[in-house]
Write a structure and sequence with these properties.
The chain has a single domain, classed as Beta Barrel (Lipocalin), CATH 2.40.128. It is mainly beta and 196 residues long. The chain is built from 1 helix and 11 strands, in the order H-E-E-E-E-E-E-E-E-E-E-E. Helices cover 11% and strands 41% of the residues. Strands 1, 2, 3, 4, 5, 6, 7, 8, 9, 10 and 11 form an 11-stranded mixed β-sheet that branches. The radius of gyration is 22 Å and the shape is globular. It has one helix at residues 2-23, and strands at 27-29, 41-44, 55-61, 64-79, 84-97, 103-106, 121-127, 132-137, 147-153, 158-165, 191-195.
């Protein structure tokens, strides 16, 4: 009876080990297509392409002062309808102030929840050939302003910003009238931000 118990225990331990190894995420290069990657894959910044962008950057646009706070998040989990992956990303938080210094909008100290889209700006793809990174912006209230942002490294202290919000039309009462649906981020191309 003892030999059969030991044999069954060993088979059970081997099965657990095999299951845990098969559940381990597969490491892939950062620019792998998440739609074609195995579920729970890890798209890793193997070549440290994201690191040069990390920092605090400022620019002025149309009388407003914009500050970007760019950080790198490793192995961030994305649970979307089409894919579930881990990915190294740049996360951009920001503050927009008017000429008097009043804060118009800020996500600097916002604590984003898992799978939160609203107010988030996450990198989606790098382009090492031209030194740019594409981002997806989730927009603010009622997804207003959601769209694409491109940051391009100009030199060690400057980067350019190009923001392309999607066109949005609200029908009826899709968005409550008491919510601020102003787009505060600079809707422009090639705005230069300087590292602080």
């Amino acid at each position: 009876m003892g030999l059969i118990f030991k044999l069954m225990r060993n088979i059970f331990l081997i099965a657990i080990l095999m299951i845990s190894l098969s559940c381990k995420s597969q490491e892939l290069p950062l620019n792998s297509n998440p739609f074609e990657s195995p579920q729970n894959s890890y798209l890793k910044d193997i070549n440290n392409e994201l690191n040069p962008y990390v920092g605090t950057y400022k620019a002025s646009f149309n009388g407003k002062q914009i500050t970007l706070y760019i950080t790198k998040e490793t192995k961030k989990y994305f649970d979307r309808i089409s894919y579930k992956i881990y990915k190294d990303v740049l996360s951009v938080r920001y503050t927009v102030q008017n000429s008097s210094g009043q804060i118009l909008q800020s996500t600097q100290n916002q604590n984003f929840q898992p799978n939160q889209i609203e107010n988030t700006i996450y990198s989606s793809q790098t382009n090492p050939e031209n030194g740019s990174i594409a981002f997806i912006y989730g927009g603010t209230n009622c997804s207003v302003g959601n769209g694409g942002i491109t940051l391009k490294k100009l030199n060690s202290t400057q980067l350019s910003w190009s923001y392309y919000p999607n066109d949005m039309v609200f029908v009826g009462n899709q968005c409550p009238s008491n919510l601020d649906i102003t787009i505060y981020l600079p809707e422009t191309e090639n705005l230069v931000f300087t590292k602080q």
